[in-house]
Amino acid sequence: MRILLDGMGGDHAPLEIVKGAVEAAKEITHTIVIIGDQKKIEAELKKYKYDKKQILIEHASDVIDNCDAPVKAVRTKKESSMVKGITMVKEGKGDLFISAGNSGALMAGSLLILGRIQGIDRPAMASIYPILGGQASLLVDAGANAECKPDNLLEFATMGSIYMEKVLGRKNPKVGIVNIGAEETKGTTVTKAAHELLLKSSLNFVGNVEAREIPFGASDVIVCDGFVGNVVLKLTEGMALSVLKKLKETLTAGLKAKLGTVLLYDKIKGLKSEFDYSEYGGAPILGVKGPIVKMHGASNSNAVKNTILKGIPYAEQNVVQTILDSVLELEEIKISE
Amino acid sequence: MRILLDGMGGDHAPLEIVKGAVEAAKEITHTIVIIGDQKKIEAELKKYKYDKKQILIEHASDVIDNCDAPVKAVRTKKESSMVKGITMVKEGKGDLFISAGNSGALMAGSLLILGRIQGIDRPAMASIYPILGGQASLLVDAGANAECKPDNLLEFATMGSIYMEKVLGRKNPKVGIVNIGAEETKGTTVTKAAHELLLKSSLNFVGNVEAREIPFGASDVIVCDGFVGNVVLKLTEGMALSVLKKLKETLTAGLKAKLGTVLLYDKIKGLKSEFDYSEYGGAPILGVKGPIVKMHGASNSNAVKNTILKGIPYAEQNVVQTILDSVLELEEIKISE
């Protein structure tokens, strides 16, 4: 298998990207192709010992940055590392493409170059949602589609369920819709209609999930529109940061507290790592004709390594084909409305 | 001033309601009228020493419970403590009504009995949003209107701003819209149009606020539709509970940690209280012709006491009249679209 890595995307590219690739390569036998400015990537690679047959460079002379308008960037920056990477997946020159670059451009590029899986109206970005002391959930859509129709939520639920089972190994995953009450009658016209569609599906649908239950792992797959998904992810991140900041201030004010904190040092560090997105791998784009994974823009080498290692099953487990196979059932449910 | 209290609403009524009223009465000179089953309330009051001229009972033979359909309950249960309380505000027999009962019924009753302030299309529920180590924000709408138009968000911003200034004493409060990006062009058709409306207003509008910034007090007034507002509030509550639970587990596993935790006991307890909704008072209903405040259904006596004490300015500061006075400016902005 050939894993394609955008060497130029993200806040710490190419330094952390290359370092992460070298670290990941030690744990796998697959080939990693880093796409980007040959000289810059070579300069970074020189810092490490690595197998030159396992880590290759594919030169790309241009870069899509975060200020670029997504569609325009994809159409005009043909020589960018991102466009090259997606195109290589389409041409069978790679099995998986990972980028920490411009999210909008990665979604636009996936749509324009690979195309949607027929029958999927709206591809989505899925995101691992960490559960303290428990197994992570998968949140779909994590922000790609701010406004959705009920059919789209059904698609997100189906694709999320397949990814959860195939890639994260959770059998018959529980699927819930984010809503403002547990009752069927609660919510917007969209969530109510989506609830009815999901009841007709063969998914393991557990109904509405209130936001309060999300951090406790209320369902394996958490379905919502991209606006709500973005709010859920960002607020969780903000709360975790805010609580840890407060905890640090609290636990170091006063001598007695300082002493207590010294005794607890390892525990608090462990708690912090449970919130650390870099442990959880990236966010797959679901519903396009090829495995594309988005990494956090601020990814450090550890995040890069984990995204590579945890992204491999997206390609190996034929997720794209399985989604394609599920479309017939989706069509029947949609038409029955 | 006469404060009307629903003696029968909430999970711990009338026990905690009466206890909270007695505790609040000690700190104020206003009269508190507890509305509900005379015998039950008398039985609770007998447990305490209190000024019989300051705490009165208004008998109500019926109760609206959480299973009741809101509008039907308001229309048919005329003798319920909730309907009586709202009616007493309308008739000038009380200056403020506080209830821990059925939220939907309290909103429906406020609309049907008191009516909307003319020019306010959608009354909203506002909620205090605690900021760790900082001044609380006010979230509007906290869940009353799942689907909103841009005009509604402008109304929420205006009413929230008035409440923040008059009741919580924050001068020229900063107003932000919850959105999935800081840029004007981000979001849904509704948030984009609301952004334009708010730019035309005389409010201290600071633009879009990403959910990640909410726990850090990004704006004094946080504006969003009721679906997003409910998600923000409930997720914050869930995250706080989840982190504290994990913290407790972490800090008591192993002897060294236990010892450290003993030294930190006071600090951790203090941290917990910062998350405690019962410290922050209730949620005002804004946009109806009278001051109505919703308490958390699980309110204990401390929450009841704080809601009474912190609710008084809603009546004293003429918030309803100020909202009425602001409607003209609102109409001009709406028409200019």
UniProtKB/TrEMBL annotation, chains A, B:
It holds the Pfam family FA_synthesis. It catalyses: a fatty acyl-[ACP] + phosphate = an acyl phosphate + holo-[ACP]. Gene3D superfamilies: Isopropylmalate Dehydrogenase. Its EC number is 2.3.1.274. GO terms for biological process: fatty acid biosynthetic process; phospholipid biosynthetic process. One of its GO terms (cellular component) is cytoplasm. GO terms for molecular function: phosphate:acyl-[acyl carrier protein] acyltransferase activity. It is found in: Cytoplasm. Pathway: Lipid metabolism; phospholipid metabolism. Keywords: Acyltransferase, Cytoplasm, Lipid biosynthesis, Lipid metabolism, Phospholipid biosynthesis, Phospholipid metabolism, Transferase. The keyword Acyltransferase applies. InterPro entries: FA_synthesis (IPR003664), Phospholipid_synth_PlsX-like (IPR012281). The keyword Acyltransferase applies. SUPFAM superfamilies: Isocitrate/Isopropylmalate dehydrogenase-like. Homodimer. Probably interacts with PlsY. Belongs to the PlsX family. Catalyzes the reversible formation of acyl-phosphate (acyl-PO(4)) from acyl-[acyl-carrier-protein] (acyl-ACP). This enzyme utilizes acyl-ACP as fatty acyl donor, but not acyl-CoA. This is Phosphate acyltransferase. It comes from Aminipila luticellarii.
